[in-house]
Amino acid sequence: MSRFENKVVVVTGGGRGIGQEIAKAFAAEGAKVAVVSRSESSCGAAAEAINAEFPESAKAYAVDVANHDEVAALGKQVVADFGTVNILVNNAGITRDGLLMRMKEADWDAVLDTNLKGAFNTVKAFQRTLMKAEDPRIVNISSVIGLMGNAGQTNYAASKAGLIGFSKAVAKELAGRKVTCNAIAPGFIATEMTDELNDKVKDAILGNIPLGELGSTDDVAALTLFLASKEARYITGQVVATDGGMTM
Ligand SMILES: NC(=O)c1ccc[n+]([C@@H]2O[C@H](COP(=O)([O-])OP(=O)(O)OC[C@H]3O[C@@H](n4cnc5c(N)ncnc54)[C@H](OP(=O)(O)O)[C@@H]3O)[C@@H](O)[C@H]2O)c1
């Protein structure tokens, strides 16, 4: 039997990059996956690609995680479609970089609303379902920037550090119901988000990675699946980095 047979997984930001890889990896191991992203086209294409490889395993949901009412409706819709939810992966995230001196209030709000309030919204929407589910898990995708800070990313660093505190508090609140909640802190992973960086910045980044290369979406997916597995039942409230040694 596959590791996630009979499990239902919700992956936010599943339309591209790390989230799409996570959604595909769960489907490959037998799970049903709700692929959530902002735009219909991106989550639709991701679900279609996953279904082409693993028939009838994925369904697309175009939802803005920052919107409390839309996410509450998502909570009901996924349960209506799949019957339950065992695993919630909060991966949706954005950047709006700039030095604090020049950062617009809208850039602060957009990043905090998606990266941090988005997780508040989804946990609110799914926690009752998770409490009743078998092997319930929450995995929140934070970042090494939430541990280390980064000039030009005050909004992103605050959102990702906030997500770590949120994960620990949720872990404590839901431990009595055996729902585990952990955070992953990826380092620099090759995706559209990091493609935007210029060569000079990329070289500087590589100089700070002991293993000497960017990570892959597979690296983050593998760790997510482990933390969501039965085997990880005794791990909760932790932050696990997959960063080529950047934060050691
Ligand atoms: N790449 C890295 O090096 C790195 C490192 C550390 C942490 N992370 C974190 O890992 C996560 C994924 O990063 P990535 O590089 O894969 O990003 P990406 O390629 O930019 O993809 C982001 C995904 O999130 C979705 N999304 C954004 N805002 C949303 C919202 N308000 N509601 C619903 N979905 C939303 C996007 O939807 P659409 O497709 O519809 O636009 C997209 O599917 C993020 O939380 C990021 O902060 C990334």
UniProtKB/TrEMBL annotation:
Keyword vocabulary terms for this entry: Fatty acid biosynthesis, Fatty acid metabolism, Lipid biosynthesis, Lipid metabolism, NADP, Oxidoreductase
Residues covered by the Ketoreductase domain: 7-192
Classification via Pfam families: adh_short_C2 (PF13561)
Reactions catalysed, as given in the entry: a (3R)-hydroxyacyl-[ACP] + NADP(+) = a 3-oxoacyl-[ACP] + NADPH + H(+)
EC number assigned by the record: 1.1.1.100
Residues annotated as the enzyme's active site: Y156
NCBIfam families attached to this UniProt entry: 3oxo_ACP_reduc (TIGR01830), PRK07231.1 (NF005559), PRK12826.1-2 (NF009466)
Subunit structure: Homotetramer.
Annotated protein name in UniProt: 3-oxoacyl-[acyl-carrier-protein] reductase
Organism, as annotated: Persicirhabdus sediminis
Primary gene name: fabG
